[in-house]
Design goal:
Blueprint lengths: L1 H5 L1 E2 L2 E2 L1 H46 L5 H20 L23 H4 L4 H10 L7 H5 L7 H4 L106 E4 L4 E4 L4 H21 L37 H4 L1 E8 L5 E8 L5 E4 L6 H19 L8 E5 L2 E8 L2 E4 L6 H14 L5 E3 L1
Length: 447
């Protein structure tokens, strides 16, 4: 107790000082807690705002906002809850837009009272005691209604300004009809001096225009048939053929041929229009290879090009790994993901998948023997889709069905690209359209 009694804080001593210190400590603690809560709340709101902005940007391409999407999800949850309570019944969600009837304050007297100030003003001004009507106001016959007893009647008691012989009614100086300005006798239109009838010059017999010898109508030169302007035949846009691409030519392979238009190998026999060009290129290639091999003949490779897809079953895909290095642009442009699988014989198979921004698998490739060939396969896929979309054929793709599943099919010569099987036609058709949007993405990731 002595220690408490000796406790001093400022001018306070003992218990008051101790209580003051405790209160200040509690207040400081509350203040710190409040500040921490505010900071956490601000950080959370900022994070939520950022997430909302990202969602809005993402869903904007579909014509809706993130808020609308969340409302739709909430409605879906409500329907599911209702179905859970009454299974088997058809659920109808009725939206009632309740508008509370605001009390009719419009009729409030304060707003309706329209003081006819504008009208009374003139009455007060008219209060000028008109000498003539005064006696009528005094008339006892009328039990002067209260309003007439207003002080306005008192001025009547004023000595009638008899002296003033009704100055008011001075016959308003009837503006002596200003001698109606005699309509200024418009100077009687002095008889328009009859245009001095100048002695009409006797119509000078205009010398009959010397009959100019009718211009001998030069025989209209037979209308020179305007050189039929051959409608400037706008040179039909000659489809600009891109130069032949031999960059990937690697000699001849049995059962395949090289197409310089696409810069790629195809299975099958070369079309007739290409055979001559391929023969010339083969001779040039053989000469170059013979020079390297010191005259040894060049043999046609008896195998398929190693960079073409393998004839093996497609492998099962895994979900793409979550991108953690900053903002993931794949949520805007889509992405290619290359995966690989080790085989029992020690080899490996590589394969790629095209994903939409929402993570939906649109196209799954066949297998390749190396990572390099898988990447080359992506470039071939992009090139082929570009050529398909630039063709005059409006049917860029078809939707087929097999085993109760629907999938799109893009075809370029001997290459056939089949989409991921879907449970219904519309989903397969939509996937084909999304391929056209995102096949050109440059985002290629390995996992």
């Amino acid at each position: 107790m002595e220690s408490i009694d000796n406790f001093k804080f400022g001018t306070l001593i003992g218990k008051p000082a101790l209580v003051t210190v405790v209160v200040m400590a509690v207040a400081a603690f509350c203040l710190v807690v409040a500040m921490i809560i505010c900071i956490v709340k601000a950080v959370k709101e900022r994070k939520d705002a950022k997430e909302d902005m990202i969602e809005d940007e993402f869903f904007k391409q579909y014509g809706i906002t993130g808020e609308e999407m969340r409302l739709n999800q909430k409605l879906a949850e409500m329907r599911e809850q209702l179905r859970g309570k009454n299974p088997g019944e058809e659920v109808r969600v009725v939206y009632v837009n309740k508008q509370e009837e605001a009390p009719e304050q419009v009729s409030a007297p304060e707003t309706v009272v329209e003081e006819p100030i504008a009208e009374e003003a003139p009455e007060e001004v008219v209060a000028e005691p008109e000498p003539t009507p005064e006696p009528e106001i005094i008339a006892e016959s009328e039990p002067a209604p209260e309003p007439e007893k207003e002080p306005e009647s008192e001025p009547v008691a004023e000595p009638e300004p008899e002296s003033e012989p009704e100055p008011v009614k001075e016959p308003e100086p009837v503006p002596e009809p200003e001698p109606a300005p005699e309509p200024e006798k418009e100077p009687e239109p002095e008889p328009a001096p009859e245009p001095e009838t100048e002695p009409e010059p006797e119509p000078v017999a205009e010398p009959e225009p010397a009959l100019e010898p009718e211009p001998v109508k030069e025989p209209e030169p037979a209308p020179v048939p305007e050189p039929i302007k051959e409608e400037e035949k706008k040179p039909e846009p000659v489809p600009v053929k891109k130069p032949d691409d031999w960059s990937k030519y690697d000699g001849e392979y049995e059962g395949c041929y090289y197409d310089p238009e696409d810069g790629d190998y195809y299975r099958g026999e070369a079309p007739e229009e290409l055979r001559e060009k391929l023969a010339a290129k083969k001779a040039e290639w053989d000469a170059a290879q013979a020079a390297k091999r010191k005259g040894q003949p060049v043999v046609v490779k008896r195998i398929a090009p190693p960079f073409l897809p393998l004839d093996t079953a497609k492998n099962k895909r895994k979900k793409p790994n979550k991108y953690t290095n900053g903002f993931d642009e794949a949520v805007i442009y889509g992405q290619y993901v290359i995966e690989h699988k080790k085989l029992e014989n020690g080899g490996e198979e590589y394969y790629y998948t095209l994903y939409s921004p929402t993570g939906e698998a649109l196209f799954e490739s066949q297998n390749y023997s190396t990572l390099e060939y898988a990447k080359r396969g992506i470039n071939s896929f992009k090139s082929h889709i570009t050529l398909i979309l630039s063709s005059k054929n409006s049917m860029y793709y078809t939707v087929s069905a097999k085993g109760g599943k629907f999938f799109f099919v893009y075809t370029r010569k001997s290459f056939i690209y089949e989409g991921v099987p879907n449970s219904d036609f519309d989903k397969a058709d939509n996937a084909a359209k999304q391929v056209q949007k995102y096949y050109g993405t440059d985002i290629i990731r390995e996992q």
